[in-house]
Amino acid sequence: MPEETNSIDYVMEKASGPHFSGLRLDGLLSSPPSSTASPSHCSATASSSALSDSNAPNQPFVIGVSGGTASGKTTVCDMIIQQLHDHRVVLVNQDSFYRGLTPEESKRVHEYNFDHPDAFDTEQLLDCIQKLRGGQSYQVPIYDFKNHRRSSESFRQVNASDVIILEGILVFHDQRVRNLMNMKIFVDTDADVRLARRIRRDTVERGRDINSVLEQYAKFVKPAFDDFVLPSKKYADVIIPRGGDNHVAIDLIVQHIHTKLGQHDLCKIYPNVHVIQSTFQIRGMHTLIRDKEISKHDFVFYSDRLIRLVVEHGLGHLPFTEKQVVTPTGSVYTGVDFCKKLCGVSIVRSGESMENALRACCKGIKIGKILIHRDGDNGKQLIYEKLPKDISERHVLLLDPVLATGNSANQAIELLIQKGVPESHIIFLNLISAPEGIHCVCKRFPSLKIVTSEIDVALNEEFRVIPGMGEFGDRYFGTDD
Ligand SMILES: Nc1ncnc2c1ncn2[C@@H]1O[C@H](COP(=O)(O)OP(=O)(O)O)[C@@H](O)[C@H]1O
Ligand SMILES: Nc1ccn([C@@H]2O[C@H](COP(=O)(O)O)[C@@H](O)[C@H]2O)c(=O)n1
Question: Are 415 and 385 contacting, i.e. CB atoms less than 8 angstroms apart?
Answer without folding.
Answer: yes
